[in-house]
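New to this. Explain the following:
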Amino acid sequence: MEVKDYLRILRDEIHSTVFATVDDQGLPVARVIDIMLADEYSIYFITAKGKEFYQQLMNKQYVAISGMTSGDGSLSKKAISIRGNVENIGEQLLDKVFEQNPYMLEIYPSKESQRALEVFRLYQGNGEYFDLSTKPITRHSFIIGHSDNIEKSLEYGYYINEKCVGCGKCYTTCPQQCIDMTNVPFTIHQENCLHCGNCMSVCKYKAVEKR
């Protein structure tokens, strides 16, 4: 899938997501916020200027977002998490927000009341898509915008290096059995890895490293 597909799932299939920011003391604060719009490389949300959330966005210009689709049990769901930079675009696209999310008129029914709102855009960051309905599970990382630091963050996870002797201990402790033992050194399939760390904890040869 492309970035726009992940953002579409976030807007249409999840919609209500958990946003985390930090307060003046550097402590985490979380609340549920709806994803109002999405385009090829951005997502958009709104908040009122009088809220603490608004001030935290203006101060830090950074958020972490997480959401999960509905379904019959956890193993039928998909989850998306994103963290990145946001900017205030004021009343731009506010009319479009209400056009595409008419339920908001029940909360802010008049143009006068809607003046309390401003639109924010997440324009740069990194995200992760997690599909629990597949076996093994499916994990994909993606980038919104471009930044050297963001691109480096996509390399995180567990990797097997040249110290591997092919003993197979890592494979036996892997809950998803996502380690390819065809060749030595073995290879971890990153798209199926849970990042549990079992492989590194049992390898006495220090052939597994965390990046």
